[in-house]
Amino acid sequence: MTVIQSAWRDEDAEAFRGQFAEQGADLADRVYTSRLLGSDPGLVLHGGGNTSVKTQQCDELGRPVDVLCVKGSGWDLGGIAPAGLPAVALKPLLELRECPSLSDEAMVNAVRRCLMDASAPNPSVETLLHAFLPHKFIDHTHANWVLALANQPDAEAVCRRVYGDTMGIVPYIMPGFDLAQKAAEVYEADPSVEGLILINHGIFTFGDTAQIAYERMIDKVALAQRELRKNPAIRVAPPAPSVLGAVVSETQRRVLNHLRSALVTAAHSRGAQILVVRRNQEILDFLERDDLDDLARRGPITPDHVIRTKQKPLILRPPAAPDQVRGYLEKAVADYVAEYVTYFETQQKNKGTDKKRLNPLPIVFLIPGLGLVTAAPTRSAAAVAADLWQQTLVVQRAAEPYGRYQPLNDAHMFDMEYWSLEQAKLGKKKPAPMAGRVVLVTGAAGGIGRACAEIFAAEGANLVLADVDGERLSETRRALAKNHKVGMTTLAGDITDAAYVQRLCDHAVTLFGGLDCVISNAGRAFTGPIAETTDALKASLDINLLSHQYLAAAASKVMQAQGHGGCILFNASKSAFNPGPGFGAYSVAKAALIALAKQYAVELAGDQIRVMAVNADRIRTGLFDEKLVAERAAKRGLEPAAYFRANMLSVEVTAADVARAFLHLYQSAKSTATLFTVDGGNIAASPR
């Protein structure tokens, strides 16, 4: 692989200046190079790093004010816009240099007081560092290859040897007022430097133009790459793409299933967890290192990562015997929790602080033979942790043969992990009711299935969507993704194929770690006199009964292995109780489906797996085309227009109404073997 190169293009810069002409060329250039930096995960990830520009804005009276536009909280460089670079009046920021000291809280208050727009996001915690340096454009990243040098026992000497007098070297200090003061002092000792190396932290570069600051960053990172390449044992390359799916074996899925269960049932549980698996040959090779237990547990490559990954991963080597896996994982998780509690109490005592302990459960798991696994209440949070650790493995793989990978010690990591300003990055948003839960929906491209996917996604559930129509299934996923930021995967296939159904459940375990709820919804209508529809009856039994059996059998095994219950919901029909003429093949199968649901409810109750069914009637879905509606209306002596309101309440029941019934049953934690009618009232179809 060639070393990193500048991605600056004059024509692209001009396009940004045109797009953001109203905000001015300075801010347009700042947005452009910020996005260039943010597009490279080897430089920054998930809100890491920051950038700034010193420019002018007018106040309410039209007077020009010197301002610092610096990255705001909650923005990623890769997608930043002018709104993500809040303007802060520069003069009062510079006056803060005269303070002998400044607490973090006082610093945040002082910076926020200087905002030109009071509704703007909080400026970066490193705002003062950007302000105290005089340069117009300043870039800050956590570049992998620089961190491989900056996380050495003799990091200062290494960086001086590599960069000479082109870079100032700043010893590790937590972000805030003290770091800003020290960085300014290092720069002022030699104003010819083009940037600063922050030991154990990252790199700053600066310049009079956005292009100069950006290309200095690229040059310094390339220099680190070339230095590391001098050692033939070091592979200087970004993480390879992760491969999922068929490469995860049945044994490995069992590990994932039991691991998710161990996290859900453990003391201090955060509730349901979503697992993310990353595996490729590079990861698998790294996990076979003889020094894995030592190297991987030394700590994150930059302290900024600790709030999303914790300071150490849990390394797991599950036994081969299937009946020993659950116990091994439960003990490993419990041991990790005990170690974390000891770490917390030791640091509390040493520092004389009184902090509230964070959740002690592990987030990152390294499992030789399986891969890198992360766990969090949402798939997005688990994916963030996985992304960060993929970069961590890259840096560790380079730093160790160069000398020795030596990040910050536990005392420094504790300070960052329990730093109030760092915790603020995680936000205070209450998790969605079904965050961490995994729901499988069949017939998901149709009316009721799609409505179920919509309502469960709105509750925060992660979705496994199945349908025989792959094109419509993909369209359903795209539509859902526009409105819901949940984990979602699709797998098209024939629900009457038991092998496909098994793949569906395997897919849920591989992609999310398990399965909490199944909505067995797929079905098809068949018409004709019962005495003349033997073939139709066989086909109806295949899709309207046996497909549900295949899914319930496969899903219940996953839920039993998890050991923390689950919910299986069937879409039955009022026809099971109130069959109509010429609809026998459908009605017979649906009547049998209700019996199937009751049987599963009886047999799975001991595993805390609840099984219920919804009886709906006359829903406008793909099941009822115009011809079938006319036919069924005629059988009931109705006009087609009146067919959907022919009930006691004279109301039309929609797919969304049925979906709400499924959600209600899932939420009814103390109910099982229940049959829930959603039909506007049909006394002949009433089960009681």
From TrEMBL:
InterPro entries on file? Aldolase_II/adducin_N, Aldolase_II/adducin_N_sf, KR_dom, NAD(P)-bd_dom_sf, Sc_DH/Rdtase_CS, SDR_fam
Q: Which SUPFAM superfamilies match?
A: AraD/HMP-PK domain-like, NAD(P)-binding Rossmann-fold domains
Q: Pinpoint the Class II aldolase/adducin N-terminal domain residues.
A: 29-228
Domain of life from the UniProt record:
Bacteria
Which residue ranges does the record assign to the Ketoreductase domain?
437-622
Keyword Oxidoreductase in the entry? The reply is yes
Keyword Oxidoreductase annotated: yes
Q: Which Pfam families match?
A: adh_short, Aldolase_II
Entry GO MF terms: oxidoreductase activity
Query: Which keywords appear in this protein's UniProt record, sorted alphabetically?
Result: Oxidoreductase
For this protein, the record's PANTHER family field holds:
5-KETO-D-GLUCONATE 5-REDUCTASE (PTHR43669), ALCOHOL DEHYDROGENASE, PUTATIVE (AFU_ORTHOLOGUE AFUA_3G03445)-RELATED (PTHR43669:SF3)
The UniProt similarity line reads:
Belongs to the short-chain dehydrogenases/reductases (SDR) family.
* Protein name, per record: Bifunctional aldolase/short-chain dehydrogenase
- Native organism is Acanthopleuribacter pedis
